């Protein structure tokens, strides 16, 4: 089988589960479309714990996402495929989406960028974030808007970007200087009686 045949085969394996188990469709729809708000609120929560490690983690996650998006755009220039619902018949499509290049998955890039950084900083507890990212990736196939290759490439780009950022950004003095300046300004506006414990 060709690479595209393999891609379609595994897409069908996952997407057809929505037809076999329709009761699960609402859950995967919520994961695919609304878990991004949970991620955003979690990043804000970590930021406003007002601990240096958590803030450095959020900075690294944000830089990772920016870097991974750049690599994703380059990958999109090298390969093009539309969403499965636009190319294949009888797709279990749960999400309405404009037809364009779905390679790689932006949702996957976003979640793996942040969740991989959360894992690198939080170690054991961070595995929950990686499981969430995997669930989101699978959900994008389940709802019919991405092929497995879209998700896998997006995840690999983000993981590679996160590892690079994790090794470099925390060692940059300018990052710590900017964080210290921000915290000084924040302290002047919102004094903290005690430092929040690291979560």
Would you kindly provide a written description of the structure presented here, covering whatever features stand out?
The protein is mainly alpha-helical. It has one domain (3-89, 102-189). Helix content is 71%, strand content 0%. Helix 3 packs antiparallel against helix 7 (127-142) and helix 6 (106-122) runs parallel beside helix 8 (148-168). The protein is elongated, with a radius of gyration of 19 Å. The protein starts with a helix and ends in a 10-residue tail after the last helix. 36% of the residues are buried. The model has no long low-confidence stretch (mean pLDDT 92). This is Bacitracin ABC transporter permease. The chain crosses the membrane at residues 27-49, 56-80, 103-121, 128-145, 151-169. It comes from Brevibacillus choshinensis. It holds the Pfam family PAP2.
Topology record:
Elements: H1 3-15, H2 17-20, H3 25-47, H4 52-78, H5 84-87, H6 106-122, H7 127-142, H8 148-168, H9 173-189
Organism: Brevibacillus choshinensis
InterPro entries: PAP2/HPO, PAP2/HPO_sf, UPP_Pase
Domain Phosphatidic acid phosphatase type 2/haloperoxidase: 58-166
